[in-house]
Description:
By secondary structure, the protein is α/β, with parallel strands linked by helices. It is 27% helix and 18% strand. The strands form 3 sheets. The chain has a 4-stranded parallel beta sheet, with helices on one face. Strands 5-8 form a two-stranded antiparallel ribbon. Helix 2 (52-71) links the parallel strand 3 and strand 4. It is elongated and about 70 Å long. The mean pLDDT is 95.
Amino acid sequence: HLHVKVETGNNRQGVQVDDLVDFARRLVEIDGLVLEGIATHFANIEDTTNHEYAFKQVDRFKEAGSLLRESGVLGEKDFMMHCANSAATILYPETHFDMVRVGISAYGMWPSTETRVSYQNLHENGFELKPAFSWKSVVAQIKEVPADSSIGYGCSYKTTRNTRMAIV
Length: 168
């Protein structure tokens, strides 16, 4: 059983909407493969308070579902559609389709400040997310580093004086 990712505007992975029916036709000819659903991924629903682009993606995703249904490739069999990440799940029930794919919010974290602000703007009374996990580690090493030493990948930090540092 597989779900095909449909490209609706993130431009990372997925089958183009215009190619979906032909792609599905080839898939259903392969013994042992069952096309069970289609999915897409939002480009920026959590990084902005303007969700116009996300809804263009939703419209394109609905178009993909309609094309697949109307093609008859799957016969009478229905298929699942899903696109809602944490931000979409929280903000827009119309993005839920057949299931949601909650990520960071399952751990009690807002996907972004913009998602939290958008939620507060949409809902007078709502809910609060509270972290349901903690980060724990141990100090592996403590060492002295002289001034003008680069630290980290890409030399991302340079000491300005003799520095005692810990490797966590």
